[in-house]
């Protein structure tokens, strides 16, 4: 599996401000994974709620055992506040993405990882990615629906707001960066009662 597919669900854990969703590549020249487009809806992303994600890209080399580092920060008026890594959720490093969905399902970190892991596996299968490593190919996710659960209580303080998320994938054999993406996203709590009428 590749980080281009995997990050779609991990990203959902971090996703009230009204900054538009944006992203940019931060990978060094010549990196084997090239992301061409990422689209997210709704914008802002509602948590809990359903997110629709589309992305496309290419890989010029097989992608195998790799470590994924996620750095998530909540933006404030003066600075960015780092989100800690709590039981494998938050700003964490995952040693090998190849078995990550199965590990999420088996260990169900903070009570939310199993459901997300199952959605990742279904999305990967529908995209034709069912083994690791995978060969060089065109990578596409089209209108993937991901249900984002309520944030666990340990991270609830970081709920609604504007976030800066960095995803960095490093090949475990060569120690070279194969993917780096910077994301700006806003999460928004669903309306309830009169707030649905008056915003």
UniProtKB/TrEMBL annotation:
Superkingdom in the source lineage: Eukaryota
Signal peptide residues on this chain, from the entry's feature table: 1-19
GO molecular function: enzyme activator activity; lipid transporter activity
Protein name: MD-2-related lipid-recognition domain-containing protein
Gene Ontology CC: cytoplasmic side of plasma membrane
PANTHER family named among the record's database cross-references: GANGLIOSIDE GM2 ACTIVATOR, GM2 GANGLIOSIDE ACTIVATOR PROTEIN
InterPro entries from the UniProt entry: GM2-AP, GM2-AP_sf
Alphabetical keyword list: Signal
GO biological process, one term: ganglioside catabolic process
Biological source species: Dreissena polymorpha (Zebra mussel)
């Amino acid at each position: 599996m590749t980080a281009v597919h995997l990050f779609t669900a991990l990203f959902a854990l971090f996703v009230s401000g009204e900054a538009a969703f944006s992203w940019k590549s931060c990978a060094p020249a010549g990196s084997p994974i090239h992301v061409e487009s990422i689209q997210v809806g709704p914008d802002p992303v509602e948590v809990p709620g359903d997110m629709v994600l589309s992305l496309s890209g290419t890989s010029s080399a097989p992608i195998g055992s790799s470590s994924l580092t996620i750095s998530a920060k909540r933006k404030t008026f003066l600075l960015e506040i780092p989100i800690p890594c709590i039981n494998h959720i938050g700003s964490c490093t995952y040693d090998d993405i190849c078995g990550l969905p199965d590990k999420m399902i088996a260990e169900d970190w903070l009570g939310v990882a199993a459901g997300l892991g199952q959605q990742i596996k279904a999305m990967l299968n529908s995209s034709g990615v069912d083994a690791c490593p995978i060969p060089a190919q065109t990578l596409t996710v089209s209108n993937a629906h991901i249900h984002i659960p309520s944030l666990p209580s340990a991270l609830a303080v970081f709920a609604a707001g504007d976030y800066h998320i960095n995803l960095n994938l490093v090949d475990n054999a060569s120690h070279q960066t194969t993917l780096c993406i910077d994301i700006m996203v806003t999460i928004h709590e669903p309306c309830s009662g009169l707030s649905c009428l008056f915003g």
